[in-house]
C-alpha cells in the first residue's frame, strides 16, 4: 500500500466533507473538443464575414445600402407569403399525418409514401410544373399554391413521427373522461404533436425566406430574389451582403419565435413496452371525402410536376441535344452531393459525440450555435464564401468544386447533426464502457463499437444531406465552377430560355435521384417509430433500455 | 495484499449524495457480495471501481496501486477490471466469438483462448451465433467470458442474474461461481437478492443509503447481525427485553448467555437490552422442567421441520416463534408447553427503554 496517511482517516474524511472541494472531473477528450470547435468555427464563418464586411463598410453606409433597395413591397411580399404558407402547411401537414397515423383511412401505407414524395421534388420544379401548364399560377397566388405543395412534408414528417411515438392510450382516457372526439383531437392529439408542428413550421418559414428559384419562375419578388439580382445583375456585392444581414435577422427572429412557443412539455409514454394496441379512429361518413382530398393533394403536389415534365418532353421537341449533357450533369450532381454529404456527416460526428457523451451546459450551447446556420439561406452562405474568397483568398477558391462542396456541407450541417446525434443518443453508452474496461483504447472503441452501432444514423444523415444538395439551386448557381453544369443549373438554364422540352428531362432526373435517398430515409425513420421485423433491433432496444434504468 | 481498497469514498450526482464515507477492502481471490435495495448506491460503487465514473472524494486502490484519488486517475482501459453488466450488454453487431475476443490483441481474437473460454462457460458450439440468437442466460455467460478474456485481476458483476427467470437463475449463478473460482479471480457481485448474496459470497457487505452497515461472512450476518433491523432481514426473529448481568442477560424466560459480551462492554450492569433469539434456538420442553411456559397458538408442519407459534405466559401478550427439526410429535393446539433457549444470544442496548 503506498497510501501513508499522516492523519487519522476520520479527520481526513471530515476535512473532505467540510472543505467541499469541487468534485473531480473526468478528463474530457481534448481531440473531440478540438474537432468540435473547428466545426463550429467553420459554421460561424459565413455569419462572421457578413458582420465583418458590414462593419467594415460602416453603419451609415450599410443603412444606406439597405434603404436604397429595401421597399415596402419587398417586406410585405416576404412576410405575408411566409405567414400564409406556414399556416397552410401546418394545417395540411398535421391533418394528413393524423389521418395516416390515427384513422382507418383506406390505403394508409400507400398514402404514407405518396404524401412524402414531394419532399424530394425541388421547389423550383414544382413551380415550373405548375407555371408552365397554367399561366394563372403566378404572383402571390402562385407562390402560395406552389410553396404549400412543395414544403408541407416538412410538417407532415415530424408530426407523423411524433404521433407514431406518442401514447394513443391518452386519447382513449380523454374520451373515457367525457371529452368529445373533436375536443380530444385539440386537447390531447394536437398537444402531443405540438412541438413537432412548431418545428415543422419553423423549417417551412426558413425555406420560404431562403427560396429563390420557385419565385423567380413565378415572377414573385421577395428578399432573396432581390438579393440574388443585386448580386448577379447589379454585381453589387456590398449591397447584397447588407440585405443578407436583414434576411439573417429575419430568420433568427423566426427561430426565436419558434423556441419561445415550443415550451418545455414532453410527450411521455407509460413506460417501456407498455404501448397499447392502437385502435384507429373511424372516419365514418367522412371516409370517401377524405380519400378524395388525399387524391387531390397527391395529384397537385406530385402529379402536376411529374406530369407536366413528361408532357413537355413530348411537346417540347429538340431532345437530341439533351442526352449527353444529361449524363454529365447527373454525374456532377451526384459527385458534389455525395462529397458534401460525406463531409457534413463527418463534421457532425465529433459534435454529436461531444454533446451526447459529455453532456454539459457549455457543450449544449456549442451545439446549439450550429443551428444558426439554418437561419443562413444558401444564397447568404454562398455570398459569404464568394466575398471571403474575393477578399482574402483571391481566385483560389471562387467557383471551384471544393468551394461548392464546402458551401453545401455548411448549409446542410444541421440536417446531418440531427441524424447523427439521434443515433449516438440511442447507441448504449454501456457498450462503450464495457469496451473500455476490456482495455480497448478510445479510438478502438470508436471504430469497433460506436461507429458500427450508429451506422444507420450516419447513413440517414448522409441521405438527408445528399437529397438536399441534389435539389439545391440558389447557392449552386453562384458557386458552380465555370463550364460545369449540374442537373439543377442545366435545368435552370433551359427553363430561363423557355426551352421546356429540354428542361423537363433534367427535372425528372432530379426527382429520380432525390427520391432514392428519400426512400431510404423513410425506412430509417419508420424503423424508429414502429417495432421492426429484423432480428437485431429488439436486442439493441433492450440494451438501450438497460442504460436508462 | 488486498485486491481492492476503498477509503473514504464519496460520490454525488448533482446535490444528491450516492455514496458517503465508504470504506471497503476486498482480499485477493475472495468473492464479495454487495447487498442493498435499488437506489442504495451499489451500481455507482461498481462504476467508480471500474473507472467509468470518478470519485468526488476519497481513494480507490487496485492491487496496491492508487487508481483514483485527488491527484491520480487511471482510465478504465488500464485497470484490468472485468465488468459484467446487468443485461450482458453484448455488442449486438458482433458474433459470440468476436464478443469474447473483443479485449484481446488482434492476433488472439479468434484463437485458442477464445474457444477455451467458450468451453468454460459451456457455449463451445455457439461461436458464430449473434447475441440476439442466444437466451438471456447464454448472453450472460458470454458476457462473463468476455470479461474474463482479458485475465482481469478483479471481476465486477452488476446484478448479472436479475434478468434471468427463476429456474435459470440458480443454475447460471452456480456456473458463474464455479467459473470464477476456477479462474482464481477476485469478484464483487452487486445484488438486491438476499439468497444470491448469502449463497454465493465469501463475505457480504450490506449497503444502505450509500453506507456500509455490516461487512461479514454470511454465517456471521445471520448469527451476529450488527443491528436489530439487519437481524430481522436475515431470517425470523424473536425479540425479548432483558437486563444485563455481567456476561449474561436476564429475560422473562430465564438467564441467557451472551455470545459476544465484549460488544456490550460500555453497558453498566442492569442496563436494558434488546435480546435476539432465533426460532431454532427455542426448545419446547415438558412443563415441569421449564423455567418459563407458553401456550400453543398454532403449528405449521413442513416435513423437514415445523414452526410452532406460542404466546408467552410471563405477560400473556408476547408471541414467540419456535422452529423444531425432526419433530415426531407436535404439541396440541392451545396446550401449555415449557420453553427454554439453546446456545448464546445476541443483544443490543435497548434505546427505547431509557
Short description:
The complex is a heterodimer of chains A (549) and B (354). With 549 residues, chain A is mostly helical. Chain A folds into two domains: 29-53 and 317-542, MetI-like fold (Orthogonal Bundle); 70-232 and 286-316, MetI-like (MetI-like fold, Orthogonal Bundle).
How does this model look, in words?
The complex is a heterodimer of chains A (549) and B (354). Chain A has 549 residues and is mostly helical. Chain A has 2 domains: 29-53 and 317-542, MetI-like fold (Orthogonal Bundle); 70-232 and 286-316, Orthogonal Bundle (MetI-like fold). Chain A has 25 helices and no strands. Chain A has helices at 9-19, 30-57, 59-69, 72-102, 108-114, 123-133, 139-151, 153-165, 169-176, 181-210, 213-218, 223-232, 237-262, 287-316, 322-357, 361-370, 378-392, 401-411, 413-426, 429-437, 442-470, 474-479, 487-496, 500-529, 536-548. Chain A is globular, with a radius of gyration of 26 Å. Chain B is an alpha+beta fold. Chain B folds into 2 domains: 2-228, P-loop containing nucleotide triphosphate hydrolases (Rossmann fold), CATH 3.40.50.300; 236-349, no CATH class. Helix content of chain B is 21%, strand content 36%. In chain B, the strands form 4 sheets. A 6-stranded mixed sheet of chain B has the order 6-7-8-3-9-10, with helices on both faces. Chain B has a 5-stranded antiparallel sheet with strand order 13-12-11-14-20, with no helix packed on it. In chain B, a hairpin with a 2-residue loop joins strand 12 and strand 13. In chain B, helix 3 packs across helix 4 (136-149) and helix 4 (136-149) packs parallel to helix 5 (166-183). Chain B is elongated. The model of chain B has no long low-confidence stretch (mean pLDDT 87). The A-B interface holds A 1-3, 9, 12-13, 16-17, 21, 23-27, 428, 430-431, 433-442, 448-449, 452-453, 535-536, 538-540, 542-543, 546 and B 1, 5, 7-8, 10, 12, 21, 23, 50-59, 61, 64-66, 70, 73, 75-83, 85-87, 89, 91-93, 102-103, 130-133, 146-147, 149-150.
Amino acid at each position: 500500500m503506498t497510501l501513508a496517511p499522516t492523519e487519522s482517516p476520520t479527520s481526513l474524511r471530515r476535512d473532505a466533507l467540510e472543505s467541499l472541494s469541487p468534485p473531480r472531473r473526468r478528463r474530457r477528450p481534448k481531440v473531440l473538443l478540438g474537432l468540435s470547435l473547428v466545426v463550429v468555427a467553420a459554421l460561424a464563418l459565413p455569419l462572421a464575414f457578413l458582420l465583418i464586411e458590414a462593419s467594415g463598410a460602416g453603419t451609415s453606409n450599410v443603412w444606406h445600402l439597405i434603404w436604397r433597395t429595401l421597399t415596402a413591397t419587398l417586406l410585405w411580399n416576404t412576410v405575408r407569403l411566409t405567414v400564409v404558407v406556414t399556416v397552410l402547411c401546418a394545417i395540411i401537414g398535421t391533418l394528413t399525418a393524423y389521418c395516416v397515423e390515427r384513422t382507418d383511412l383506406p390505403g394508409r401505407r400507400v398514402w404514407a409514401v405518396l404524401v412524402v414524395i414531394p419532399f424530394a421534388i425541388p421547389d423550383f420544379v414544382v413551380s415550373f410544373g405548375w407555371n408552365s401548364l397554367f399561366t394563372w399560377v403566378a404572383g402571390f397566388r402562385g407562390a402560395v399554391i406552389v410553396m404549400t405543395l412543395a414544403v408541407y412534408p416538412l410538417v407532415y414528417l415530424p408530426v407523423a413521427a411524433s404521433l407514431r411515438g406518442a401514447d394513443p392510450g391518452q386519447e382513449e382516457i380523454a374520451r373515457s373522461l367525457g371529452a368529445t372526439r373533436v375536443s380530444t383531437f385539440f386537447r390531447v392529439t394536437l398537444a402531443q404533436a405540438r412541438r413537432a408542428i412548431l418545428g415543422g413550421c419553423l423549417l417551412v418559414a426558413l425555406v420560404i425566406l431562403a427560396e429563390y428559384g420557385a419565385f423567380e419562375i413565378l415572377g414573385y419578388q421577395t428578399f432573396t430574389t432581390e438579393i440574388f439580382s443585386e448580386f448577379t445583375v447589379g454585381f453589387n456585392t456590398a449591397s447584397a451582403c447588407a440585405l443578407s444581414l436583414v434576411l439573417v435577422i429575419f430568420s433568427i427572429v423566426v427561430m426565436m419565435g419558434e423556441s419561445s412557443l415550443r415550451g418545455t412539455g414532453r410527450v411521455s409514454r407509460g413506460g417501456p413496452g407498455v404501448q397499447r394496441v392502437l385502435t384507429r379512429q373511424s372516419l365514418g361518413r367522412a371516409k370517401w371525402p377524405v380519400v378524395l382530398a388525399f387524391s387531390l393533394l397527391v395529384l397537385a403536389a406530385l402529379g402536376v410536376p411529374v406530369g407536366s415534365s413528361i408532357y413537355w418532353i413530348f411537346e417540347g421537341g429538340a431532345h437530341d441535344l439533351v442526352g449527353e449533357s444529361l449524363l454529365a450533369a447527373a454525374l456532377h450532381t451526384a459527385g458534389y452531393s455525395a462529397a458534401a454529404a460525406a463531409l457534413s456527416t463527418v463534421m457532425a460526428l465529433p459534435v454529436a459525440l461531444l454533446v451526447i457523451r459529455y453532456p454539459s451546459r457549455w457543450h449544449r450551447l456549442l451545439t446549439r450555435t450550429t443551428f444558426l446556420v439554418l437561419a443562413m439561406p444558401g444564397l447568404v452562405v454562398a455570398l459569404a464564401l464568394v466575398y471571403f474568397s474575393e477578399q482574402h483568398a483571391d481566385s483560389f477558391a471562387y467557383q471551384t468544386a471544393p468551394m461548392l462542396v464546402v458551401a453545401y456541407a455548411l448549409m446542410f450541417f444541421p440536417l446531418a447533426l440531427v441524424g447523427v446525434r439521434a443515433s449516438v443518443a440511442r447507441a448504449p453508452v454501456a457498450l462503450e464502457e464495457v469496451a473500455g474496461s476490456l482495455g480497448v483504447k478510445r479510438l478502438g472503441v470508436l471504430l469497433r463499437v460506436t461507429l458500427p452501432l450508429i451506422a444507420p444514423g450516419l447513413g440517414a444523415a448522409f441521405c438527408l444531406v445528399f437529397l438536399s444538395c441534389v435539389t439545391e439551386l440558389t447557392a449552386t448557381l453562384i458557386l458552380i465552377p465555370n463550364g460545369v453544369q449540374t442537373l439543377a443549373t442545366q435545368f435552370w438554364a433551359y427553363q430561363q430560355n423557355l426551352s421546356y422540352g429540354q428542361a423537363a428531362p433534367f427535372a425528372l432526373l432530379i426527382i429520380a435521384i432525390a427520391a432514392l435517398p428519400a426512400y431510404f430515409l423513410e425506412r430509417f425513420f419508420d424503423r424508429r417509430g414502429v417495432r421492426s421485423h429484423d432480428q437485431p433491433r429488439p436486442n439493441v432496444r433492450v440494451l438501450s433500455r438497460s442504460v436508462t434504468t | 495484499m488486498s485486491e481492492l481498497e476503498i477509503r473514504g469514498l464519496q460520490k454525488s450526482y448533482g446535490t444528491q449524495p450516492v455514496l458517503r464515507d465508504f470504506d471497503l477492502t476486498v482480499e485477493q481471490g475472495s468473492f464479495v457480495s454487495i447487498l442493498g435495495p435499488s437506489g442504495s448506491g451499489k451500481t455507482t460503487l461498481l462504476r467508480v471501481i471500474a473507472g467509468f465514473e470518478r470519485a468526488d472524494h476519497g481513494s480507490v486502490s487496485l492491487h496496491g496501486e492508487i487508481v483514483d484519488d485527488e491527484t491520480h486517475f487511471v482510465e478504465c482501459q488500464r485497470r484490468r477490471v472485468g465488468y459484467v453488466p446487468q443485461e450482458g450488454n453484448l455488442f449486438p453487431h458482433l458474433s459470440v466469438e468476436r464478443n469474447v475476443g473483443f479485449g484481446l490483441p488482434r492476433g488472439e481474437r479468434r484463437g485458442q483462448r477464445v474457444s477455451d473460454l467458450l468451453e468454460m462457460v459451456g457455449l463451445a458450439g455457439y461461436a458464430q451465433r449473434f447475441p440476439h440468437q442466444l437466451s438471456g442466460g447464454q448472453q450472460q455467460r458470454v458476457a462473463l467470458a468476455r470479461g474474463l478474456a482479458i485475465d482481469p485481476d478483479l471481476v465486477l458483476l452488476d446484478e448479472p442474474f436479475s434478468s434471468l427467470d427463476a429456474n435459470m437463475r440458480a443454475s447460471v449463478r452456480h456456473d458463474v461461481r464455479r467459473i470464477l473460482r476456477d479462474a482464481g479471480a477476485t469478484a464483487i457481485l452487486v445484488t438486491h437478492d438476499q439468497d444470491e448474496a448469502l449463497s454465493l459470497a465469501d463475505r457480504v457487505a450490506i449497503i444502505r443509503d450509500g453506507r456500509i452497515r455490516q461487512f461479514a461472512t454470511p454465517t456471521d450476518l445471520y448469527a451476529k447481525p450488527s443491528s436489530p433491523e439487519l437481524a430481522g432481514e436475515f431470517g425470523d426473529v424473536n425479540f425479548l427485553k432483558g437486563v444485563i448481568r455481567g456476561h449474561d442477560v436476564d429475560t422473562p424466560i430465564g438467564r441467557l448467555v451472551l455470545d459476544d459480551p465484549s460488544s456490550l462492554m460500555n453497558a453498566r450492569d442492569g442496563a436494558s437490552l434488546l435480546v435476539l433469539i432465533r426460532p431454532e434456538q427455542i426448545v419446547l420442553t415438558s412443563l415441569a422442567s421449564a423455567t418459563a411456559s407458553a401456550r400453543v397458538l398454532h403449528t405449521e408442519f413442513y416435513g423437514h421441520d415445523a414452526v410452532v407459534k406460542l404466546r408467552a405466559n410471563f405477560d400473556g401478550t408476547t408471541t414467540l416463534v419456535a422452529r423444531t427439526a425432526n419433530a415426531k410429535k407436535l404439541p396440541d393446539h392451545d396446550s401449555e408447553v415449557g420453553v427454554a433457549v439453546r446456545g448464546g444470544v445476541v443483544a443490543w442496548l435497548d434505546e427505547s427503554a431509557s
